[in-house]
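Dear colleague,

As promised, here are the two records you asked about, laid out in our usual form so they can be pasted straight into your sheet.

NAME FIELD: protein one
SEQUENCE, THEN STRUCTURE:
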Amino acid sequence: MVDERDMSQEREWFYRERAEIVATNLQKRKMNAQYVSSREKALPIILDMIPEGVKVVRGDSITLDQIEIIPELRKRHQNKYIDPFEINPDGSWLHEREERLNMMRETFTCDVFITSTNAITLDGKLVNIDGLGNRVAAMVFGPKKVIVVAGANKIVQDVEEALKRIRGVAAPVNAMRHFLKHQLVEFADLPCVKTGKCIDCNHDSRICNYTVIIEGAMIRQKGRINVVLIGEELGI
């Protein structure tokens, strides 16, 4: 009997078709890309992309937490792993501010930087907005290899839609996450936290300060950026 409540097949088809278009266009822009249908299938693929003995730094990413790559990296004891975003049981940052900043700076000399992206256009552009800039800066230059993990829900038509998605959805939700989960009380006063929408503020704690669009790579950096698209709704 047909179950109209179950849309998993249709959703899987939709995500796969769009992700394969994106992957093809990322390759044209000299970035490696592949699609997998689930986080379970993605996990061993990502681990295989991280050689034994290399230094790995992570960016702030809900997607990475959802696929549980961090516990697996720690469990296999093969890499020097640096996590500026490690938290205490109550959600507060484990490391003090200056230590966290120093850990972020290690990103620029690491072997592998693993992160997510705010949006990916159908024609293969990675679109991101940062508050501090550490994530987008490392994606552009520094680490020898960048692994970008993203759910297919982050695929958008073009850069205009990407920026609308980030400012209209990702940034407000992320700001509220930091307020609720990480005890960053200064975020409570952000207009997007108060109203749920972006007003392009000039608040002291504004998290939309650095907008970066990665359109490709020079031939000498071909394959430095590696994108793993997952056929699920992941991240913010």
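NAME FIELD: protein two
SEQUENCE, THEN STRUCTURE:
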Amino acid sequence: MSTVYISIGSNVDAQSNIRTAITALKKQFGPLTISTVYKNSAVGFEGDDFLNLVVGLDTNQTIPEFVDSLHHIEVEQGRSRDAEKFSSRTLDMDLLLYDDDIFESEKITIPRDEITKYAFVLQPLAELIPDYIHPTEKQKVSALWQTFKNSAEMIPVDLQL
């Protein structure tokens, strides 16, 4: 059994899409650890605000199998896999961490580099696992957040999940 952390974001019918994603993850994987949901501005393009959070869960799937499971949930929510990288999303789910593994393929890099690039990923991750040592940065996630420079306004949202 491996412990994984994923980021979830949406800016199209966001509350509904995030709730549906959480339900699908619980159904497939069981209990979840869920961060605060944060509202923040779109990054890299002009668009509606996003809701973002991080979820932890346990899985027996390999990294590629797990990523395929996430993609399946995204497509079920109307996500187009060929949309531009920086664009509105019904649902965006990215595998951030898979145990302490370092993994790289043509399609996947773990740990995901967005952890250290975006407040909407790092802040909720630090909330869930502050003492976790990032496999490549060799620092606690809480320390990465404390020294984070690209802080964007992150507004906590009370979304019952």
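A couple of things worth noting about protein two: The chain has a mean pLDDT of 89. Residues 115 and 122 are 5 Å apart (CA to CA).

Best,
R.
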